[in-house]
Design brief:
Keywords: Membrane, Transmembrane, Transmembrane helix
Strand content: 25-35%
Mean pLDDT: 78
Number of helices: 2
Structural class: alpha+beta
Strand order of the largest sheet: 3-2-1-6-7
Transmembrane segments: 6-28, 129-151
Protein name: DUF3592 domain-containing protein
Helix content: 40-55%
Oligomer: single chain
Length: 154
């Protein structure tokens, strides 16, 4: 009986944490993109590919030059672009070419707060969705344990 209650408490706590992280992720991302309301065009002037030996993944970091109020800025970005299957985003790639242009969103109050518009679509939403679904899945365990404890079904 006490083991079941411990499992219920741990599962409920873990699922609540996952729900909270998922919702927090959505709110933070939404606020960041809401603050960055103005657009500019950025051009890739240099890029570097970082290879991860442990996971076998690579990441391309692009140095992007952009202009705001007739002043040039340079910043490193990981530019995520979705890979699609029948118009459904299923992954992303970060490889860029020198001279390639991207739409950047920036905060008019803080010119250094710049986001890539392409990130709005896929990569940033997925992490929140994954935490939210994982939290819902874990929430099933305390419900099933409670049903089993009350009605001795399983």
């Amino acid at each position: 009986m006490s083991d079941t209650l411990i499992v219920i408490a741990v599962s409920f706590s873990l699922s609540s944490i996952c729900f909270f992280i998922g919702i927090l992720n959505f709110v933070i991302r939404k606020n960041n993109f809401k603050k960055c309301s103005l657009k500019t065009i950025g051009t890739v002037i240099k890029h570097q590919t970082l290879h991860s030996t442990e996971a076998g993944h690579s990441k391309c970091i692009s140095l992007v030059e952009y202009e705001i109020d007739n002043k040039l800025y340079k910043k490193d970005f990981v530019i995520n672009r979705p890979i699609r299957f029948k118009n459904i985003p299923i992954g992303h790639y970060t490889k860029t070419k020198i001279g390639e242009t991207f739409v950047l969103l920036y905060n008019p109050k803080n010119k250094y707060h710049v986001l890539v518009e392409a990130d709005k679509e896929f990569n940033k939403k997925m992490s929140g969705i994954i935490f939210f679904i994982f939290g819902a899945f874990i929430m099933l365990f305390p419900i099933l344990f409670t049903i089993d404890m009350l009605f001795d079904v399983f």
